Amino acid sequence: MAASSLAFDETEARQFRDCVGRLQKFAFYDDEKSRSSLSLLLDELLAVESYVCSFHSEHEGSAVLAYLARVVPLHLDRIVAKVCHLIVNFCAHKNVALATNDLHTLVKFLTDSLTQCPSFVHAEILSALCVVCENNTHRIEKFHDVLVGGKGLLLQLTDDTTCDDDVVVEAVRCLALFTGVGRSHADCIEVRHLSASFDTFVHLLHRAPHMKMDTHMRNKLLMHCFSGIQNIIVIKRLPNIELGFLFAAVRAYMFYGLTSHSLNIPSQLYPNVVTPYDPLVSSKTLSKAAGDAGRREVNKSADTSMVKSSRGLGTSEAASSDRSQNKKLRKRKGRGRSGDLEEDKEKASVVEERPAWSSAVEVRGAPWSDITPEAEAQDWEADWLKLSSSESEFSDTEGGKARQQKSEMVRVRQSALNCFLNIVRIIDKKIMFGYWSSFIPDVGFTASTPQLQQSLFTTILRDPSPRCRMAAVASLTSMLESTKPYLAAAEEISTHQSAFTPFSTILGSMIRDMHRCLLQALVAENFKSVLTQIIKCLANLVSNVPYHRLNPGLLSRVLKQIRHFYNHKDPNVRTACLTCIGAIVGIKPPLMEVSQLIKPPHNPVGVASSAHPSDSPLFRPQDASYLLYPSFGTAQVLTALEENQKVTDNPRDAQRCLDLSEAAAEKNAADSNDTSSFVGPQAILKPDTGDLHLNDRLKNGLTLTNTKLNPDAETFRPVQEIEHPINNFDESTQINETSFGSGYCTDTTTPVLGASSGMATPVFLDQLLQKHARETSWVIKLCIKNITGQPDIPCEESHARVEAFQKFEPLPIRLEALQVLSCLIRNYFPVIRQSFDLLQNLVQKCLEDPNHIVKLHGVKVLDELTQVLQKDVADASISPNHVIPFQQVLDFWLYLLEGPLPELLKFNPEMSIEGNNLVRSGACECMANIGEEVFAKLPTARQMQCVTLVLGLAGDEDKLIRASAVRALGVYIMYSGLKEDVAFVLDAGKAILSCMGCPSNCVRFKAAWALANLCDTLVLNKDKQVQDFVTDFPHDLLLQLVQCAASSTKESDKISCNAVRAIGNLVRYMPTRCFLQSDMEKAVEAAVRGLIKNMNSGTMKVRWNSCYAASNAFQNPELPMDRTWVTDILNMLSKVVQNCTNFKVRINAALGLSAPSARQGYGSPETVSNVWASLVLALETAENINNFAEYKYKDSLTEHLCGAVLHVTSLIELADLSALSQQVHIKGHSFRIFMEKYVKLRLAKKVQSDIPSLEKVRGHLQRLESSATSDDQRRCLQALLQACVPDTDSADERTPEKTSFQQTYD
Fold this sequence. Notes:
- The chain is built from 60 helices and eight strands.
- By secondary structure, the chain is an all-alpha fold.
- The strands form four sheets. It has a two-stranded antiparallel sheet with strand order 1-2.
- Strand 4 (707-708) and strand 5 form a beta hairpin.
- The longest helix is centred in the first third of the chain and has 29 residues, at 398-426.
- The N and C termini lie far apart (108 Å).
- Residues 288-353 are annotated as: Disordered.
- It holds the Pfam family DUF4042.
- Residues 411-594 form the DUF4042 domain.
- This is HEAT repeat-containing protein 6.
């Protein structure tokens, strides 16, 4: 059989080669014989199967097609049609690559055929043009005007009033392929051509319901339109798109064939919820006909009984049938548990209070039976539209046609949803947020028609196609991304009903409805890919919602539902669950609700479950500390401790309590129906020191603390009694492990809402975890279970072979669990502080992992842990009972420096270069978190180790390592034990200067920050009068620092903002001898020029730092005031203080102008006059607020400006009055008014500062008046004296100005 088939293929191949050869030698004459011969030859070529065809060269097929295009006359319409079929056969089936010249010849032939051949051939010509244009749009630019110009052929053929249906469909398909150029060749199409194509697609979408077209052809037309719109949207070439017109069509086709309602497309959607619009009533009820056909199919086909699910029909009969079938499926799959009343209550709470648009949704329905898991696993993006399925898959019976129509409608809906997804990904989030009300339900807004009640959740909950549901959830996820600023105003609706509903309340109701609908979808979904996307969407929602402004309970419901999927067999679902948990524990600001959810599932000693019923929803560390670690001086706690001590002192009572606890544990383990219980299985373990073992310091008996706080039934006892659980572990002891939900259930079945586990029941081998199980948060347990390896043996054999091969979760799950721990430590460390030892050992195990990615994420967890420990050390003086003891933190760092950190900083040959660099960089970041207090208590050898490691890594070749090392140097340089060490400061300065010359922006940014810190150290040593340091610091290094800072002011804003800070510190540090040296004088002048430039350019942070640096420079009493650059600084500050729009920058400019402590600091009398006038003018312009965000700084700016004016006034001399008299004459009245306001402001705030008082200023002016020699001087001084004596009493009683406003209320 195989031999005969091979012989047949060889015959076919020889026949094809013979036909190609004859065609290449064929000489066409326009006579009957030539026409007949060519027609027969084309028939022979078309009859050959594509898989046996072969060409001698790459462009042989292309040359054959071009030859036919040149010789075939256009009036031979039938031969033209056969040539078009051959083009399709060669290009689409035989994958013939067209040369550029041949491509142009074919396009010319096809476009001329469209204009000269009769209409019945147009469909074949357009089909050939489709395959020619596909992926070749950038090669046929000279034909763009002919195809899609003002009167382009394709645009004309899309008119359904003059062209046949198949011609319109093929023209639209060709137009969609024409626009599919991708971003790489987006510039080849002019914007006017894209705009014309886009308008055609959208117009056809709106007109499709009114076309007298066959349903099959209409569905193909719709899919091609959506494909073309996606192609245009992706290349981002259209600047102005009428989104309302487009969204109206896209939204309507999202529910195409999904309901029995007619297809009504509104003329436009508006970007708000209150603008009314009337839908255009369609003349044809397409969806209703489809629904009737679908019902006939269900009634006539016996094999489609499973189709009657809640997502398909929505009738009560279908729902009842689904419930009965779903029960059978659950029994077969082992997913249900009888008598699970708690789960029924949970589901009922999720489904209750549904709005009108979802009233027909039955969330307990069976999965859509027409879709298999294999089909569901296929890619759901829009690429599948290019590979249309054969129409022969469906039979010619009425049921077969209905199934075909139903399948096409699913594809139309998927095309619309994919198009919407691409639009959401491309357009600005701010613009998309205006259209949220059209796609997300709002219970506060009642729509007038059923069509307007539909939303994305209609598709998510009711669409029978998992691909459509996937696209809808993906669209919602994309809509929610980066919307935190827009949702920040959301709040819950108040109980008081009013005629006006604020937008913030509407947002709050939308957010609550999104939670409820997504949880409904989570309950009803059975396809793992869609389930994964729903959980990811929940995580995205959690990350952007301001829960501190909403009523509590939303996060509890989310956590209550996703807990059933912690042990799902699909690793993607488990990863999504961890992502959602990470989003919950990563919410900022931290919430009390989350702290209650993640804490160990028991009440602390002496604290009832309702200890703080009136707590703020915001999480405060002191609240968590009180809940977990109450003050042990209270009578309530002492009583509880005494009672517990009595119980533990009585062996009989203790044994009775142990028996009761074991009995309760056995009851909970046996009662597998109760999924809401927090009590998990029992585990019989043998001691094993190989998994999550204690570090060497603990094994050797070295304790990390003197006492340990145990808020359970035990009293306080030394750590030595609990630090060695391995030695005290009894094999016969049954350990009751506390778990969360049903994640650790030993039963083979899983909850109704979950899925069967993909791995054996996890058994923890770490005895420390077992010993402190009641103290450990369930989140930490879940993360440890996913991070560490589990024994790859059945559960019933776990007691026989504990030392078995470790089975690890997939890498994404392990990494996600580590990220959850990082967020948990960062935001809720007060809640999990009791698990510090466990976290320490987990980090140790991650650092020993052979996978460098796990090791890297373990380093990130260590980074977060060291940061919170540093904060605990800083807060020890405030609340010593609520932090990790200092000695324990010190021992922890000693342990890290004795082995783990130096090992991480070494180059590991077993890892890749990239992996080594990432891990070493992360370890160097941890080195910077040691803290000044801990560093001071380290042995000298360890201090030298830290300094040596960081200095060595600052010269590494990798940019990430250098950046982390130079940042650590910037931290170390501020430590009191190191900043006075000249040798270290010299080494650090050289390393920082070396990093400033690195080509990497990241390294230079960190080095600039370290440079500014180094200069801060110089100033601190000078202020403390550390003469040895000032004397020994070399002049050449100081010159290099000034030159480096001067050159850095010209770089990016991130670098220049620190460079100007360094300049201010350097100028303040310099002694008099430095300003007398020519090289230093040039360097300082260049640095000051860069400082002046950055005062009035760059970001506001750069300007703020520049003004602050100028103020800092004037603090140097040895500053030479006769330099021109000093006057330039004052002039630029005078300009900034008047004109800058940012009030914080103006405040720092005012501080800079008031920085000189003596009259010589202001230079000439003209400079003093200019400074005084600019400050008064700045007071006037401070009243003009263009940005409301600056209003909160207005009073502070006024106070600083008035203080600066008073400071300058207190320093003026008689020589300044001549230049100042004219400014006082002009601005004297304004000066007095603001002095009155300043006095009131000072009295109200009762602020004490170093600004000279009005009495001191008046005394100075009076002394000058007694020495005045001219009348101009006396008049100027009298005006200033009058301004400095404000009449505050009369200011309050001043007669109000006349106004045209009529007071209507008493």
